[in-house]
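Support reply, case 0932

Customer input (verbatim):
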Amino acid sequence: MTHVSYSNIGKRAINQDYIYPIDDKTDSNLFMVCDGVGSSPFGEVASKEVCEAADRFFTERSYTRLSDINFDALADYLRESIAQVEATHPEVKGMSTTIVFIYFIEGGAAIAWMGDSRLYHIRQGEILYMTQDHSLINDLRKKGNTEVNEGRIRNFITRSMNSRTINDFSIHLIPGADIQKGDYFFLCTDGVLENITDEILARVLDTNEAISIKADIIISQCMDKTSDNFTFQLIQI
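Our regenerated output:
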């Protein structure tokens, strides 16, 4: 398994995105992307704390089966981690972040998320799975409202990780038999999606280029064009 991590401030004053791991050479089975909520204070603190706390949670436990992973305990652990930071530093109270991660174990992989940071599972140019955003736009579309004014509500999310609200993870489990050599997993914040459509992503990952070149193509599609921070993890099995 190889991967490429990338994060860019875009046209914002602060980069509120955070990724784990931040080192492409790290031998990790946990990959994560968080996007601090801009309407909340200190989103950059929330995204970093949640990434680091999730790493601690999984490091302290030795899960060997997908069915053993306690996502409720993880959510409680992350909320408590945020609360502890807020108690020590009252100025950051109210901070919030999205989160999406994939955790590989011998029996497959677990995907969980809150908010509109997204994950794709792609094989030979076909999107096998994509997380569903916790966003007002997505909720309206599910109800059949196809004439949504995205400009006004594009960044309105309906679920996030914070210390004030008890939100549950959405979860998707992939058995090991459904993961093949050459598959790609792509995790990203919504800033990437300003310029990378599903079709563009599938096409880029279906070329014969090295994973580093594919990452560079994605970066070039976003650089100087994306108004938001843009961050991604690209993993090749």
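We compared this against your earlier run and they match. Two observations from our side: Residues 2-236 form a domain with the Phosphatase 2c; domain 1 fold (CATH 3.60.40.10). The longest helix spans residues 71-88. Please reopen the case if you see a mismatch on your end.
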